[in-house]
């Protein structure tokens, strides 16, 4: 019998008691997120689980009997370990303790072990249900008496107990010593927690030394490291929250340090993939580094940490006090965070008492920063609470005496900076140590950069030695090998340090004068920032992103020059460097460059100019045609008028700008958002912090509406070639915390808020553009980072459309009804109301001045399997579903633009997939089975207009959903599940050139045209069919505008050829000259490359030439990099040349069997599906668990199997290079329940080195048989 619970499911790791069918039950949500239900009666005395005689451990999925020590598995109810193992001395009286010992002895020998009764549970229609079996009750009275006598009246409360840590010896032999660290409550000697260590008596094996070198540096294991093993640690559930986990960990490091150990090894609990991921993230925060798998020791889920390092890093400089190369972001975070932390520590007593007593505007900036660091939280009632921890207590001790590294670094400030750093504040917490080091080291590094720029050799040498980036060789200071890359990354600190005057005044701003620096400030009298340092740092940071902007310009300067821009106007041009780069790009990289004499290009620099910036821009642009004028980004109409006055046709202008819209002067909006727009703002601007000039807190609704009105003013003047915009986005608190060490967001957002800049999240920014009628094309925008996990930088080419898009709400019901057309997708008004009620942010309406044009409805789901034709539950979850799209017949193309806009919103929000339940438009009269009909559509034999709307945009048909839409009689109630892959590995590796004559010949063959037929006379169905076939054959999508051009077949082929192709087309040939041209295009002329440059270069190599080089090769000098590119390209070209053309080709010189497929992005890896699955698929970034058996193909020898005795299923992070390439790529797309055989060639397995520890010879071909258990 299934019974529905009235209560909500508990939070992760928590348990609640419920009463069902006159009996008590406990609902537990484990740390893995799964829900378990058990009877609230612990055998044998049936005392409550959450009472004084029992406890529940959501971390280990275990129930404990406090009386007799028995442990029960919450998943099965079975006894774990011995039955009634004995009674530990706690707070019981001695007589009661003797009685319990006696009963435990009887139970252990006379009573059969009794399991805990657990039942099945499920989520049904969004509610939790449990299946209750009939309960047999016996011995109620004797058991009640026993409980009354033996069970204590109150559960022990250790909140105020004094706990001491004891180091106790364990088992010992000649090779190994065991040590137990026990946390004991004084007075009663109850053990609240323990940790177990195994300490080898000799240096570690060579294989372990190799793992240490792999995780840290080649010199880390030079002297034979001593590695201890952290076997286990456990804290009693009732003692959690007292900081015992951290105290035990600190004691572990103390013990290992005193005994001379160098590293500590642990193996993460692997019961569920979710638990593995959570624990690995926790231990990474403690300074542990994951060990790659497979490895020479055969370790799985293992992690390593240096004993003596407070903040270890996978990339290390060589000096004793050297700057960790990978931690430049965190150093800058520490520099900006320290003044806020100092004030936060002073405010802690008031905050704990529920009052703050400081200025609310700057206080919100402070609280948001502390939320990112994990020191405060927003409670359900809206108040702010302190998250107490030993880490926070460490800050209170360390900052008792203030640190003041806050003045713009100069020679006079050096003694003070050195004195601050040499205080050597010690702490055991990795995050605290890293932030402190950043606060004290960052100004020294910036001063080092200044000294290098100004040629101050003596100061440079002193700082190189101080920071560990240089070594003294007989009086001559030489930079370490890691110093150049470290200094390259440290350039991003320049912007952070430029705000030193504002950071130094933070206490004054927070407590006394929030308007300091802004009430009377002008560009000539800025008090809060060192503008020279800021411009220098910004210019260095922006160079890499300028290249993203230039990528969007290529199509604008190709084709007919009379239709191209005649002017490029940069609002906020500064010194004119972006304009100069654009001119050089057009001149050297586009066809327009060969026609500049006939069709000149004039640059227009627009800025709030003072005399200094005017001179700088004139000097930069002296050799190119240019005009300079004064203008304010907030007054585009005035800019347009000035352009007309100078004889400039505004329709011929391409506007550009970079990182300026968030730094515009704030203008109060004319109105505030209401209805769905207000809910949208509240949803996306959680914990935002915006200040006006007076330092007062601005509402997020005001900031959003001000942005919309600002963009509307710009839309009014964009009548020509549009606007290319490069802008930074605001990350929310959880995302900033998650990617803390990956970007500048934490410290940049603090400084932006305090300096009256108005960054907004990516989704509201795109929505504001849409409300202003500005949209980018499908290929007209870029997101950074390219992985798409979040959006920090957004680059777009925007054009004005004759309509706008906004959120719809209940006030638009009449309008939404009017857009419906009769047919199977038409719904009632009540259903429209339900869509708006359950997914209030999911309905978008496109409307022109004369009326509505289209509407799209979406919702969010926890997983794809919950997809329905109508919205049945509250919109919540990571999966976006398109429910319906309705467009007016008189508005062709608006529906497609609305679809693309929804997909863009999902992508910039970090989404992975978007699904929909579509339908077949013409199946009813085809005479085919539906599956056959869909297969023919996919192969291009026929083209279904409804399905083609999705598949031509890149959607994949996943399967059929019988009965999903009963009202669709034409399709017998069956819907078609489609999926858009928003990010991941579905995108092809690259495009390689194909010829227009080749495409033209194919089109003529397909359409049976002779050479005299130069034009196309096709209806829309034939055009769609042709588009599908050309894409399948050449891997290019025919441009829609080319289908209707006057160029006919030849023009269509030329337009397709300009896009490049994929698949079996010949790779582009490379020589030294073309390599140099490519590197100049991607990197510019300089030799210096930061991590962003390397990532972009790697991506471009893969896409254009299908060449895959590692970061070490990419960081080499140009001569070595050119050699590596040519060598790698020759290998790939030879493989391509030997491969036959056809859909069955593996690309490795032979055709794969019909049932084998090439793994994505691999040259010599194929897979065969042995048994189909039906669950969630493995995607990049997911954490699958699989059974695996590996065999060397040449010898037939099995080298590994998770099904062997003592082995367990293997878990890993997919698509991130954590395992060998063939495995990593060959498993992508594998579904839960699927069995797959993967054949991996030597170069994508263990390569020329083989894996001797497992008996794998060099260049061996591997065969893995895998079964996906969970994702």
TrEMBL record:
One GO CC annotation: cytoplasm
InterPro entries per record: ACP-like_sf, Acyl_CoA_acyltransferase, AprA-like_MT2, FKBP-type_PPIase, PP-bd_ACP, PPIase_dom_sf, PPIase_FKBP_dom, Rieske_2Fe-2S
Keywords from the UniProt entry: 2Fe-2S, Iron, Iron-sulfur, Isomerase, Metal-binding, Rotamase
Residue ranges occupied by any PPIase FKBP-type domain in the UniProt entry: 1181-1271
EC number: 5.2.1.8
Pfam families: FKBP_C (PF00254), Methyltransf_36 (PF23525), PP-binding (PF00550)
Reactions that this protein is recorded to catalyse: [protein]-peptidylproline (omega=180) = [protein]-peptidylproline (omega=0)
Keyword rRNA processing recorded: no
Annotated Rieske domain residues: 2-104
Endpoints of the signal sequence: none
Gene Ontology MF, one: metal ion binding
Protein name: peptidylprolyl isomerase
Provenance organism: Effrenium voratum
